[in-house]
């Protein structure tokens, strides 16, 4: 009998939500998504040490300042993971800009261009990369500019209809409404359990999907952050769904029959009127939604924290290498010889004069 995963693929593009590219291939996803938390988790596995070492080596060869080297190494590490993941999928990889840029339009644009440059440097065309940006007003405006440059954007940390409308109006490639985190908030604050068909996260994604299809927006709706396969089954037919490997495995092992729930053919029955937001109305309406406001700021803080932890890990690795190099320099200098001694540093022949 056909698995639920294979049934789902009839109507929905399945995306793997992981940084652990060794676990992706068995599920046959089209695309893959990463975020700072997923990359941080993956770096704890020793089998990915070579990607960290490669990123540090690259950064050291480009800049002399340790601070700048750490930031460059972090960017390169994202690209290294993305490059390896692209070997296992036919489609695109989503990589995320630093969460601390969530309220900085120009900073986001600069970082996005830089990440694309790093991919193109190793032969990956920008058509295979999507840049993940937080769905703040500033982030959406950055995405609007980047899309005009041909850089595809995946708008993340999306919890509300107002964010979805603004993203569609900006012409972004894809949005990632977080069904699971919406459910988390309601369970915690409303003190209620929900059946899958009345799940507030599922209902949010469904509303956005129907609105987009009714009014002809080309932006892809990709449901994200699922807590159980019931949520996924209720969104069968959504454009894309990005799913953790744990839930992909459950879908692959289940063989019950499921039905398509979302379709452009039924979206015309949706009653919502077309609306638009400027900056003031966007921020006010977002402010009036306590769930969306709390989850957006919480998500930004969480990703920023994991980003800082990743940078700290890179700093420790970089400093450890510097210590090893210093010790090696000492070993190669004969204190009784006052002539210069050649020594290879970061692949370059260097002379140290003993004085």
Automatic annotation (TrEMBL):
Q: Which UniProt keywords apply?
A: Pentose shunt, Schiff base, Transferase
One GO molecular-function entry: transaldolase activity
From the UniProt record, give the pathway where this protein acts: Carbohydrate degradation; pentose phosphate pathway; D-glyceraldehyde 3-phosphate and beta-D-fructose 6-phosphate from D-ribose 5-phosphate and D-xylulose 5-phosphate (non-oxidative stage): step 2/3
Which superkingdom heads the taxonomic lineage of this protein's source? Eukaryota
Catalytic activity, EC? 2.2.1.2
Q: What class of enzyme is it?
A: transferase
- What's one Pfam family here? TAL_FSA
Keyword match Transferase: yes
CC annotations in GO: cytoplasm
User: From its record, what is one biological process in GO terms?
Assistant: pentose-phosphate shunt, non-oxidative branch
Reactions catalysed according to its record: D-sedoheptulose 7-phosphate + D-glyceraldehyde 3-phosphate = D-erythrose 4-phosphate + beta-D-fructose 6-phosphate
Which CDD domains is this protein grouped with?
Answer: Transaldolase_TalAB (cd00957)
The record's similarity note reads: Belongs to the transaldolase family. Type 1 subfamily.
Q: What PANTHER family does its record include? A: TRANSALDOLASE
Q: What does this protein do?
A: Catalyzes the rate-limiting step of the non-oxidative phase in the pentose phosphate pathway. Catalyzes the reversible conversion of sedheptulose-7-phosphate and D-glyceraldehyde 3-phosphate into erythrose-4-phosphate and beta-D-fructose 6-phosphate.
What protein name applies here? Transaldolase
Q: Which organism is it from?
A: Gigaspora rosea
